[in-house]
User: What shape does this take?
Amino acid sequence: MQRLGILLSGRGSNFMAIAEAIREGRLPGTEIAVVLSNLPDAAGLETARKLGLPAIAIPSAGRKRAEHDAEMIATLRAHRVDLVCLAGYMRIISPEFVRAFSNRILNIHPALLPAFPGLDAQAQALEFGAKVAGCTVHFVDEAVDHGAIILQRVVPVLDQDTAETLSARILDQEHIAYTEAIARVLSGQYSLVGRRYVRRGKE
Ligand code: GRF
Assistant: This one.
């Protein structure tokens, strides 16, 4: 079994999409080992508990990043996590955390990176006048929204879009993208060639 550790800070719809994919057999040989949040009242934690999954709050407020991350790493290890999935985890992780799970931490970002990193990516795309938007699942490295891209899905920007309508259509694609990206990573069929994540034998 490949064991996932999910990190979230909010509603957890990407987490739910992953849980649903596992339930439906779309990620065979995969299970969610633990759901962690830095915010004790994150809705995603409650959802995890309802699904019968271990759900643990490790509050970050007022704590040094290194100390908080050390507890996160220890908890992930205690649950024998193979792959860490950041799913709306609104906290920058330390270089120590990145190194503890080297090329084993994934993040999803609601833009076509390297365009529009950071907060409110969908509103940034709209204000910039981009005609296509989308989402990116990438490996986490020491810079924010920067690591090698695993996959992207494209969403057209419509003339009548608001940040809300665009975000909703991107979110639908995020839910597809995250499961596909996890499947790709766990398949063992892809490798990194520089920043390019390519199917082995095709590089
Ligand atoms: C998503 O838009 C994701 O791309 C971003 O944070 C949001 C999390 O949403 N990193 P949810 O908590 O998974 O519903």
Summary: Strands lie at 2-8, 30-37, 55-57, 83-86, 105-109, 132-139, 149-156, 190-193, 196-199.
